[in-house]
Amino acid sequence: MVTDVNGPGLHVRDLSITYEGADLLTHVDLDVGADEIVALLGPSGSGKSSLLRCIAGVQAPQSGTIHWGGVDITHTPAHRRRIGLVFQDPLLFPHRTVTGNVGFGLTHADPQRVSELLELVGLPGFEARDVATLSGGEAQRVALARALAPEPVLLLLDEPFGALDRDLRDRLATDVRNLLRRTGTPAVHVTHDHEEADLVADRLVRLATAPRDP
Amino acid sequence: MKLIVPVLISAVILAACGGEASSQPEGDGPTVVRIVTHDSFALSENLVAEFEQTSGIDVEFIPAGDAGEMVNRAVLASGNPEADVLFGIDTTLVSRAIDAEVFEPYVSSPDALRAELRDAGLGVVTAVDDGDVCVNVDDGWFTAEGLEPPVTLEDLLDPRYRGLLVVQNPATSSPGLAFLLATIERYGDAWPDYWRQLRDNDVVVVNGWSEAYLSEFTAGGGGGDRPLVVSYSTSPPAEIVYAEDPKPEQPSTSVMTDGCYRQVEFAGVLRGTRQPDAARAVVDWLVSAPVQADIPLSMFVFPAREGVTLPEVFAQFVTRPADPAELPAGEIAERRDAWIDEWTQIVLR
Amino acid sequence: MSRAAVSNTAMSGHPSLRTLASAVPLAAVVAFVIVPVIAVIAAGVGPEALDTLTAPSTWRIVGYTAGQALISTAISVVLALPAAYALYRLNVRGRRTLLAIITVPFVLPTVVVGLAFRELLPFPGTTAAIVVAHVFFNVGLVVRVVGSLWGHLDPRLVDVATTLGLTPVRTFTSVTWPLLRPAILGAAALVFLFTFTSFGVVLVLGDPALPTIEVAVYTATVQRLDFAAAAGLALLQFAIVAAVVMLSGRWQARSATRQRLRDDEWRRPARGVVDRIGIAWTWVLALAICIPLGALLARSLRVGDGWGLTWYAEAFAPSDSTTRTASAAESIMLSVQYAAAATVIAAVMGALACAGILAARRSGPWIDGALALPLGVSAVTIGFGLLLVSLRGPVDMRDWWILVPVGQAMVAMPIVIRVVLPLLRSIDPRMRHVAATLGAPPLRAWWATDGAVTMRAFAVASGLAAAVALGEFGATAFLVRLDTPTVPVQIVRLLGRPGEGNLGVATALAVMLLLVTMLIVGTAERLRPRRGGGW
């Protein structure tokens, strides 16, 4: 894994995030290789979500830089970063069907790709379903498919299985890992569960005060 | 905090109950006779006080808007009146009210009235005063402009007088309707043409007398720009009476005696009143000598009673038209609405 | 961890009793709204009524009324949206004050606002003037209704769209707009209805040659006693209102989605040009709203060429002993008394109605709609109808002091229901269960959970109802006895008599009415609970 900011992969340097005036994270450095899945561990409230949001571009950090593939994307608007984000809540668009959700990020309607993705996440035939009828696990899988559809260069997952029960969590964790490997998508997977982290990631990073590479 | 709301509500309810009690006049005190009138009503206060003392009847005047509104309310409430006496209904409206059985027939002291007015109330209401609705002319303005003022109805169509006349809407105004009736009497079925030409000559229409005289008329004190207005033959002396000292020798306005319409104003006892005797006594009082002598300077109309001396300023400056227009009450009753509708179509659309 | 419950199922302890509760307000609506409407129609039905319906002038009036209502609605919505965004999505300094300013016009007396604009605008007596006044009234309504929903939309949905690559514009059109649509449509429908049946504003501020349906009904009855025309127009108006209500209801149902609404309103700090424009827009809007009110106040203090309190003094002067017209002080006292009674009636009826609606799970929406009818029936029709019923029916209600408050309460009741119902619906019944398991007896449990919220909801609703009753004009004009006018009626009477004195006293009265209304509404708003959307 390369630590040069100009090299491939994600390089976060000296990132500081404040929330309501108080420091949440200070001087964070993080490197993620272009082909690896990193688990980010840390207790609740330690700012993991904010970190992901800054990387995705939907929140602005106080200071610091973010590079991807050698390009400084610190000030690039989120919709141009091609970095996907999956939340703990599936946050499916209630006014659209499963297909409508999965295909949302595609520039042209592509029913074939949607079906492919649904197969990948283990929900074949769910195309026309009303999202309100899905179970928690199903909804989360649709969210995953949706995030993968526009072929993001990096996927961020913010405790995506937090609301699900143990067995489902383990199953999905394995599925996600295989999915990411198959699509060749690097990822940062935030969780507070050590076991889940082990199942999903290549490497563990702990977020305490100033995480450095081991 | 939680207590404030219930306390507020209770306070307000208590206030409300207090209000309710006070708004019910019951017959324990002196008899109260309520007279509904139009907004132009006025009488000297000492007269009212005198009457109240001598008769033991308390009189309450209730202004009800312009004459048309007042009569309509009475018609709506026929048999179930809001007052005991109605004063201020004129010849153009009286037939509508009589047809709707608004009044309990009572004519007070007919022999004391001027001969021509004795039967004017059709045996149902009593004539209290009369007046003439005429076009008033601001002589001062015309002199300044070096223009001869118009003399006949026909003259008003002359392009020389374009944009100089303000009239009232006959649907809402009593003098407005009177003027319309004068033109109908003059031109018969050709009256719509007259009004078309009047409209083309840039006549302006407002809703009521006050707006026309006080706001639009050049000599009305309201900064208006129209030197010709439909008003009363008594407006010139009124001008002197209301002028500041030193009073002018002559009025600066005069009256176009052609195209005048004679209007009689009546008072009547409302059908269904709970104190008919007291109501009749009030009507008697309205045509009594003291009140009739007061009427000219209070309301600028002529007393209906025979033999009342007119004030100096009236005798000097009023020209009563010799031959004012008058249409039969029955015809007015029948065709009034249709005339007003047609007039509206021609002039306001 | 409360959820937006659709129906408060735990309340159906005694279903028959609860459903019966809505019978009382329903009966009131029938007696004091439906019956008068029937009286108006009966008074005019006949061949002449058909003439009215086919006369071209009638359709001109209808077209004009609808046209000005549509324009007013469109402008209100457009002006309101940026403000709704700024006030409900962003952390804006002075947010509560701005919101209060923008929404206060809605409850102001129509006559007062009409007068304020008449004195302010260089173009009174035109359609443009009416539209301006209508927008003034209704912008706040749209901001409130749309903003409430917007504030509860999960902002992370926007984040999702952004990370999926959508530009901000496309995010708005693909995510925000479809989710906002039900609220926007609902608000637009309400604004259309209010402007369609608008009376006080059009009477004071409109072009006399261009009446709206409501004004035409009024002039037909008061000036011409033309019941046929009045009935025909009233019927047409009612039909159009009913159609709009039905259509908008369907539209809303179709575009509504079962949304996951957040329980709290999460606002973020402003960033970027769009946010700043929204905030600036809001400030401008608030300032624009203050101007007519300030102008009215200034006008009331202007005496001749100078300034002074003359008009206020004259307003309180004892009434002329000959004419005995009510002095301003008497009108104010009377208005307050009427409003108080009307508020109590509206609050009690509203409470019963809410209980009934919540208990009747299936027919709830129907009851709600039926009780909202008075909103759509014009105030003039209600007033005139009640008058007719009094004059021709078995009972002469005109002597009943309570008649005016009843008329006003009918107009205010839907507002009470609109405010309280969503708040009641948002109460999670499980909270009560929790209280019960902690040992609280039923009444205490209810009070601890629902009670406080309910009481405050009613306080807010009562404040609004009082404001509505105070400023009510259309129905009251018919129902007051000649010598006991309410303040709005008094103001219009004074305006009908030209002369600086009358205008001056009218403006003084208007300012006083304005201040009392704002005081009442301000107090009520302070009691508004922080959560629980709705109106």
Quick summary of this structure?
With 214 residues, chain A is α/β, with parallel strands linked by helices. Chain A has helices at 48-56, 98-102, 111-120, 136-148, 166-183, 194-200; strands at 10-19, 22-32, 37-41, 63-68, 71-72, 83-86, 154-158, 187-191, 203-206. In chain A, the strands form 2 sheets. Chain A has a 5-stranded parallel β-sheet with strand order 6-7-8-3-9, with helices on both faces.
What does this structure look like?
The complex is a heterotrimer of chains A (214), B (349) and C (535). Chain A is of the alpha/beta class and 214 residues long. Chain A has helices at 48-56, 98-102, 111-120, 136-148, 166-183, 194-200, and strands at 10-19, 22-32, 37-41, 63-68, 71-72, 83-86, 154-158, 187-191, 203-206. Chain A is built from six helices and nine strands, in the order βββαβββαααβαβαβ. In chain A, strand 7, helix 5 (166-183) and strand 8 form a beta-alpha-beta unit. Chain A starts with 9 loop residues before the first strand and ends in an 8-residue tail after the last strand. Chain B has 349 residues and is an alpha/beta fold. Chain B has two domains: 29-130 and 264-317, Periplasmic binding protein-like II (D-Maltodextrin-Binding Protein, domain 2), CATH 3.40.190.10; 132-262 and 321-348, D-Maltodextrin-Binding Protein, domain 2. In chain B, helix 4 (91-99) packs across helix 13 (329-348) and helix 7 (191-200) runs parallel beside helix 13. The model of chain B is unreliable at 1-5 and 15-27 (pLDDT under 50). Chain C has a domain at 1-7 and 14-39 and 324-535: MetI-like (MetI-like fold). Chain C is 74% helix and 1% strand. In chain C, strands 1-2 form a two-stranded antiparallel sheet. Chains in contact: A-C, B-C. At the B-C interface, helix 1, helix 2, strand 2, helix 3 and helix 8 of B face helix 15 and helix 20 of C.
